[in-house]
Amino acid sequence: MPVLCYPTSMTTNFGIWKGENPLDYTIPLFILQLLIIVMTSRVVAILLHPFGQPRYVSEILGGFVLGPTVLGRIPGFLRTLFPYRSLPILEVIAHIGIIYFVFIIGLEIDPSSLQRTGKYAIFAAACVMFPFAVGAISGKLVHTYLAIETNKSSFLTFLGVTLSITSFSVLARTLTEHKLINTNLGLTTLSTAMFIDSWAWILLSMAFSLSSGNLPAIMWTMASGMVFILWSVKVVKPAVLWVSRRKQKGEVVGELSASVILVGVMVWALLADAIGINAVSGAFVYGLMIPYGPLGVALIERVDDFVEGLLLPLFFAICGLRSNLYSVSNVWAAVALAMVALLSAAAKVAACMSVGYLYDMPLNDRFAMGLLMSTKGVIEMVILKIGRDMEVLSEQAYSILVVMSVVVTIAVGPLLKLATTSNRGQASYQRRTIMWPDPNSELRMLVCVHNTRNIPSMLGLLEACCPTKRSPVFVFALHLVELTGRASAMLVVHDTTGSASSSDPQQLHKVPLGRSRHMIQALESYAQRAAGVTIQPLTAVSSYSTMHVDVCGVAEDNCVSLIVLPFHKQPTVDGDMQVINPAIHSLNQSVLANAPCSVAILVDHGLSGPSRMAVAQHAVHHVAVLFFGGPDDREALALASRMAEHPAVSLTVFRFIPGDDSATLPSMRRYGSNYSDEVLTLEEDEENEEQLDEAYITEFRLKHVSDETVVYTEKVSNNAEETVAVIRSMEGIHDLYVVGKGGGSSSPLTEGLTEWCECPELGPIGDMLASNDFNANASVLVVQQGMQEHEMAAGMVEESPRKPR
């Protein structure tokens, strides 16, 4: 074994002007190494960003680039920038980073959630046992081919543990990027990964003990490990719970308390290393002792950026410096070990397919879960590094397993996208519109808000929908927050106390939730006063370009019938409409184009709040419906019909009917040679729509025939000018106009208005009512019906299928 001698006092230099080389000294060399490592990992991350790969892949590939596999082939590169004398310092600091990173993983896991159901434990057991068995059985051949001199049982144990674990942190980010974090698939997968992460450290401790080969030492290590865990539970956890209770009462965690807890990480790592179960396992156990909640979030705030931003890349660089693909001399053995890694990933897929079948999971969900459980990350690198340090893994085996870890994780993203894309959209639910045979069934609404100014009008609209115990309304209140900084896209679920939870708690503290808490307080205050209303507050953190996916996903996952969006303009003091954010305009258009249910856009001009309507004994809120015909207008009338049940609401329905002088046939120039066929088809569609309109108007009038607060009137119009004149005559009378987005868009009564639309998402009538030219100080609700007509409408008249929007 070569012996390397160097002076230990060479830490800082006296400057280049005295003829000294800064790289001969420890501190300048370490700073340069840190800069190179961080910059390399960031450059690789930027290059891989378009491919949607997790950060783990970019950092481990950055380590490969700096190692002997790529840049290390350049003569003098490693000897100059990463000399052997500097590696012990890099490894010590990187190991400290791993200790605190694993401590953070322990903080993210809620031990109480592991006791709530046995389904996740069964999934976890299958996902561990199947690949562990594959790795242990096939590893015997690999052990012989690679001529590994270490104990066979230790090698098989390390190989089995490496192939059977799942990275909880990488998995959470993968689910977030694919918008699966709050689906049933995402919650099941994350809960299963919690079990696997917990078991992985037990298996690692066993593998660490078995590597000694001394049976008495193994028994003493295991016994002391059990005592260590029990002592942590009985002594440490009560003390930390006491600190946590102070935090929950509103007191900020002080510097002394935080310092003591963070220093405790090193103490537990030292004790674990001393008794032979590895320092990393001790940090994980200590993290589990910290209660899941505000204290954990406060601690993560203090260490997360420093650990993940600076210390963790050092660890991946060490892994890359120790990996050398040119050291693989036995090609067939390398192929065999790679096949073992692929077979273990296939075993996880098979395990999820089998167990998922017992729980009636959809086929695509089972396959997607198997892919997700094959995700690798930092923990696998930690186990591989420990195996390499203990010489349980040879340089060849270590390099091959590191490469296969990256290959499997890279393959998960594209395969998962295929599985979830084919599965997305298969989910269906019956009530996608407000029109429904049973008017007393629960109405599920998704109300979106951008700021606190949207709250009063949304609550006023909710109160106008007349929620009662006999006809309840379940509201998902979604606060839309633009993604900024280093936070990841996520969906945060709030409970009734205002505390937040997310499937990616490590990112939760990076999200500005102050405005969400004000929103929750207003919603809860209203829900306590109103009867028949249940409110579930949510916060969606995403970029505006993909925010519509969150909105539509929440609507579909929760079987929502109506999505309510605020208009992208708000009234100013002088009465004009001012654009809040142009991105909200695009968001509304994307939701209208992709929503699985009906959508309404609320243009607020001072809509009455819920308190005024709740105490009123007579009609104080005057609602008007402008009905031209078509599915959107029928949906608007259905919503207004529900509003008419409220004692403080008076409803007037204006039905516009073409006069004798109005044009009824389309122009021949529009269709050319296909005139006859297209006109016949159009006439059939219009006839069906007219029959549906007549049937629904008749049903509406019979329902409210004895209601004096509901007025039905018909307006005859021959062209767009007469239509505009009739609408302008209503100025100053009504508080809220409810119109269909497509109402009148193909009618001769509004011909030409579409060309002047400033906001096409409102339709021609809604755009006119919302414009500054219309002087009425009234709010406008523009409704678009869901993509599918329902059996109620089809039962009245046999309807032709609607064309997709």
UniProtKB/TrEMBL annotation:
It comes from the Eukaryota. The keyword Transmembrane applies. GO terms for biological process: potassium ion transport; proton transmembrane transport; regulation of pH. Residues 40-417 form the Cation/H+ exchanger transmembrane domain. It holds the Pfam family CHX17_2nd. Keywords: Ion transport, Membrane, Potassium, Potassium transport, Transmembrane, Transmembrane helix, Transport. The keyword Membrane applies. Residues 623-785 form the Cation/H(+) antiporter C-terminal domain. Residues 473-614 form the Cation/H(+) antiporter central domain. One of its GO terms (molecular function) is antiporter activity. One of its GO terms (cellular component) is chloroplast envelope. The chain crosses the membrane at residues 27-48, 60-82, 88-109, 121-143, 155-175, 187-211, 217-236, 256-277, 283-300, 331-359, 366-384, 396-416. Its main location: membrane. It is a multi-pass membrane protein. InterPro entries: Cation/H_exchanger_TM, CHX17_2nd, CHX17_C, CPA2_transporter, Na+/solute_symporter_sf. It is found in: Membrane; Plastid, Chloroplast envelope. May function as sodium-coupled metabolite transporter across the chloroplast envelope. Belongs to the monovalent cation:proton antiporter 2 (CPA2) transporter (TC 2.A.37) family. CHX (TC 2.A.37.4) subfamily. This is Cation/H+ exchanger domain-containing protein. It comes from Musa troglodytarum (fe'i banana).
